[in-house]
Amino acid sequence: MRVDQTIRTRLLMSVSQRVIANAEELTALDRAIGDGDHGINMRRGFEAVLTDVETLSAKSLGDALKGVGTTLVMKVGGASGPLYGTLFMALGKSLADEISCELLADAFGQAIEAVKARGKSDTGHKTMLDVLAPVHAAIGTGGDELAARLRRTAHAAAQSTIPMRAVRGRASFLGERSIGHMDPGARSCALIIEAIADVMEGTA
Q: Does the pTM exceed 0.90?
């Protein structure tokens, strides 16, 4: 599959608009177990991406993703900026305009390792990694209706963080009280995957 400028524009717009539209939900989730600013910070970052979407989408896929990562590092506060910035920049280093499930899975795997190193965290720690890891596995299986499976996987993975006890981030200070709440980073990650799935299906 070739990711041309039209598709790059749709991807960046879909992801940005999805995060912005759900900023209040993300803030509410973060208010329960964090600083209460995840939605505000993510909205600020993706509003900046949206403002620059024409310039970004005119670049190759790899450079566009690295540009998004740089923007998020600069505009998103707290831990989310460096983590999401690392994710997008790592993907940008590995992806070109011609992609396949195999190439995407490999790039996603490398990006996950970069996020783990940046956040000193792993799956099961109640973070965005608990969405990224199962999505990576779903990409690796490929096959028909991949977009729908990615959407279902991301949604279920974010839900799976509710019974987890936070090990990393501000939520970890709450100990057992972090149990029973969805991780806001996992939710924002799921929103991004769902937006990408919409573009894959041609509905965004």
A: yes
